[in-house]
Design a protein that fits this description.
Distance between the termini: 59 Å
CATH architecture of one domain: 2-Layer Sandwich
Structural class: alpha+beta
Radius of gyration: 26 Å
């Protein structure tokens, strides 16, 4: 194979690897479906039939339903970049009917920082060779 062909194949693969990938996560209800929800008219079950299950139900207030979606773009090994985010909040009254529908501004969302701790477990910590050779001499199919 000539060197020129190898270089062209390598360059084509390099360019293809740098093509951005668009990911859509979450539930994206269409505006037409959201317009069908009217405060005071639909119950929780009817909202689920129209929009589907919510992305999140409020932890302390189960009468708050959130439909969250986000669109990100990632290129190769770089951090994904947020392109757009949509948050729709549906609240219910004490009778279980829709009280309000709000489209929240993503800038109001709070950034949550996760803790990178590992929970210690009791037991024996095995090294690499102990894991590889630990079962040598153990009978197979002993029934226990």
């Amino acid at each position: 194979m000539p060197l020129k062909t190898i270089i062209i194949i390598f360059l084509c693969c390099s360019v293809i690897g740098c093509t951005p990938q668009i990911d859509i996560r979450g539930h994206v209800p269409s505006p037409e479906l959201i317009s069908k929800i009217k405060p005071g008219h639909q119950s929780r079950d009817q909202v689920v039939q129209i929009l589907g299950s919510p992305s999140v139900v409020g932890t302390f207030e189960d009468d708050h339903w959130y439909y969250i979606s986000q669109k990100t773009e990632s290129t190769a090994f770089f951090e994904p970049k947020l392109i757009s985010q949509s948050i729709i909040l549906i609240t219910f009254d004490e009778g279980g009917f829709v009280a309000s529908i709000k489209k929240l501004d993503p800038d109001q969302a709070k950034k949550i920082s996760f803790i990178d701790r590992i929970t210690p477990t009791k037991g024996k910590s095995l090294g690499l060779f102990e894991q590889i050779f630990g079962n040598l001499g153990v009978p197979i199919g002993s029934g226990q």
